[in-house]
Amino acid sequence: GEDVEQSLFLSVREGDSSVINCTYTDSSSTYLYWYKQEPGAGLQLLTYIFSNMDMKQDQRLTVLLNKKDKHLSLRIADTQTGDSAIYFCAERGNQGGKLIFGQGTELSVKP
Amino acid sequence: NAGVTQTPKFQVLKTGQSMTLQCAQDMNHEYMSWYRQDPGMGLRLIHYSVGAGITDQGEVPNGYNVSRSTTEDFPLRLLSAAPSQTSVYFCASSDVGTGMNTEAFFGQGTRLTVV
Lengths: 111, 115
Description:
The structure holds two protein chains of two kinds. Chain A is an all-beta fold. Helix content of chain A is 0%, strand content 57%. Chain A has no helices and eleven strands. In chain A, the strands form two sheets. In chain A, strands 2, 4, 5, 9, 10 and 11 form a six-stranded mixed sheet that branches. The termini of chain A are far apart. Chain B is mainly beta. Chain B has no helices and eleven strands. Chain B has strands at residues 4-7, 10-13, 19-25, 31-38, 42-51, 54-57, 64-66, 76-78, 87-94, 105-106, 110-114. In chain B, strands 2, 4, 5, 6, 9, 10 and 11 form a seven-stranded mixed sheet that branches. Chain B has a four-stranded antiparallel sheet with strand order 1-3-8-7, with no helix packed on it. The radius of gyration of chain B is 14 Å and the shape is globular. The chains are: A mainly beta, B mainly beta. Chains A and B meet through strand 5 and strand 10 of A and strand 4, strand 5 and strand 9 of B.
């Protein structure tokens, strides 16, 4: 079945780049998403990429997609303490709006 | 534009009690879903609906019922609460079609504790 995997924790120093990785199994995925969850809050969409793209850049965020390896990554440049949160990777197949989420990666940014 | 509204924000139940978590959206979205979030397990899909009158099971449906009588509302019912249902519950809505407007909007969550 569909599965999305992420590592659980990442710690970086303020000003460094953060790279959060995600793997998925559904080869029919049409869209892949990165969501951010701050403590005590719901999820907010950070960025997304269509499955026919390799890369998408949005200010400090860069998303790379390797369809052959079913690997997605999110790079945050110049990471700030305000970036500390849980980041979820999600994939959407052909079944309408259904999203499958990874476990979430808790990013800790140290000053 | 309120987006997705969940009530209540917090709830404590005794084992065996029943309750309904409310979810309403004002964006005329066809697709609505319920997830539970547990540490280290991400968000797991409980039930979803692709439109009024249509519901289907997700990954972890046992112990939960849903109905979709209107486009706006998608309540989640716990028939007989169990400690294993202690979790944070999120409701989400989105358009179903392809294209740019596929973002899922999430409510703020309901933190449920079953004692």
